[in-house]
Every structure is written in structure tokens, then in C-alpha cells.
Amino acid sequence: MGNLVQQQKPILPSANFGETGLEEIWLLGQPSLSGYLDYVRKIVIGGAALSRAKLADEWRLANDYYYELESREAGIADQAACADLDPALQPLADEVMADARFVHTFDTLPTRFGVVELEKLVVYQLHVTRQYVDGLTAKIGSDPDPEALFRFCMPLDAPTVPLKIQRVGSRRYDFISASSDLRYHESVFLRPDQLRDYTSFGPIAGVFGVVVGFGSNFLNVIQADNRFLLNNGYHRACALYAAGVRHVPCIIKTVTRKDELDLTACQDVRDDPAFYFKGRRPPLLKDFFDPRIRKVLPVPKLSRLIEVTFDVRDCEIAG
């Protein structure tokens, strides 16, 4: 009998960061203040020495500004433009839909391809890494053609980020990558005929394994009534906005009730759906470019660690 456990956590490098530091763009003034203070203390370089009172003051000013926006831009999230995908791009959409990553990820809720307005997308993720955004902005350029834009938003190529796999014990393996998209996929049972390039010392009864890889990485949004919540693709969305692109192709998942939202949204959205889908002025993508809201924080480079351990018991049972 086997027992396999996977754990997912970041690895913090040594205190001498040198050129390994990054800059994280944070949206201040949004829930929660305690989460922001904890992030600064635990992650930001030198954050433990910063005045918590000053940090709270900065957050409070941004929070007051959001109250101003609630009056000036009330209902703006309900005005996001959404159009059908250009029929000329349908072959590219068909290619994405035929990909196993799409089939596995978008197999439950009503889903379609469309073109949405970037700046009015509701956001739940409150920080992005500036260097990653800048690199993607340089990659896409200021005037991408429709096909290049679609492929940028729906990448089918394999991730090129380095991945390290190491055995750290007789029954423990670590998967390490600089990409925060590294994740546990699933546990699977394989038949002997599904194995390749493996020589066993005896007949194989079966193989049980843990699949670790990367996410689909398709830019997608969740639609509820007239609002669109950016669900995945934050760095690419910010890069496109910085490049001057205002409308982007994406995958749109439609939800009409909380039970459906529970299947697709992150925990923060599931915990308070009214804040994002009913609030007068929720955080929007364009806020990442508003100097009265955003704050740039120095952070170390982090790597994602997926740790897999297993235990095997061999015993006699009745029956």
C-alpha cells in the first residue's frame, strides 16, 4: 500500500540577494491590510525593519482613494466591453480547444472565446512582478498583429523556464522551478504497457505516480452578469496594457451561481464574491498603473518547490 504526499511552497534564498532581487508591484488599499503587512514583513527585502505604522498609513491613503473612486467610477466594472472573436482567428481557437490542457481545464462550465476590454477587468491578484511584465511587454511590442496577439494570450508552446528534479531521500523527490506556475497535477495509475524505456526485475503489477508540471497558462476570465474577472494571465495582461493594447482575446467562462464560481475561482473570490461582482468599484487591471494605488517593493527571487514523498507498507491481510 502506498501513501504519496505532495507539498507546494516557495524557497527563500539567502539574505545576500545581490542581482537576484526583483520588484513587486502591489495594489495598496485593498483587503487585507494584515495580508499586506505580513507580506512586507516576511518577503520584502528589509521589510521586517520597516515601520508598520508608516506602511499602514500608506495603505490607508490608498484605501481612501478607492472610496473616491467608488463615487467617481461607480459601476465602471459593469461597462467592460466584450466582443466576439474575429472569425479569421477561429482556426487558432480550434487549435487551442483541441489541446489536452484546454480539454482538461475547461471541461465543466460554459466556455467561449471572446475579446474583452483590459482596463475594466476586475482583479483579485494584488501584485505582479515588474521584471516579468517588462520582459513580456518587450516581447509583444507596441503593435502586434491579431495572430501574434492571440498566440501571446493563448500560448501552446512548452515552458522554457529551467526545471530541477532531485532525489533528496530514499522516498522523497523535489521539483524546483523559478516559475510560480509549477504545480501538482494529479496522481495516476499506469498499466505496464504505458511504460517506456524501463526494465523491471520482475513482472509489473502496476505503477502509481504523481504528475508534476505547469498550468495551461491561457489568459482567461470569469464572467458573471456584465463583469469580467481576470482569472489567469496577470503578467501578460499587464504587459499588454503597458504596450498600449486595450482589447485582448481570451477564454471566457460564464458563471450564474455561486456553486459554479466555487469550481473555477480562487479562494479569495469564493470567500467574498459580492466584493468582486457586486461592489461599486472593485480593483481593476488599470489600477496597476495608477501611482496613487501602486507601490513597488523590492523582493528576492523565489523558486517554487513541489515536494513529493511516499511510504510503502508490505503486510499480510485476511481475505
Structure description:
This protein has 319 residues and is of the alpha+beta class. It is 28% helix and 30% strand. It contains 10 helices and 14 strands. A 5-stranded mixed β-sheet has the order 3-4-12-10-11. It has a 4-stranded antiparallel β-sheet with strand order 1-14-7-6, with no helix packed on it. A 3-stranded antiparallel β-sheet has the order 5-2-13. Helix 5 packs across helix 7 (234-242).
Explain briefly what this protein structure is.
This protein has 319 residues and is an alpha+beta fold.
Q: Report the radius of gyration as a whole number of Å.
A: 22 Å
How would you state the average pLDDT, rounded? 90
Strand % is 25-35%
Assign an overall shape. globular
Oligomer: single chain
Largest sheet: 5 strands, mixed
Regions with little confidence, pLDDT below 50 for 5+ residues: 1-6, 8-19
Residues in helix, %: 25-40%
- Could you spell the SSE succession in H and E letters? EEHHEHHEEHHEEEEEEHEHHHEE
Return the structural class: alpha+beta
How far the N terminus sits from the C terminus, by CA atoms, comes to: 16 Å
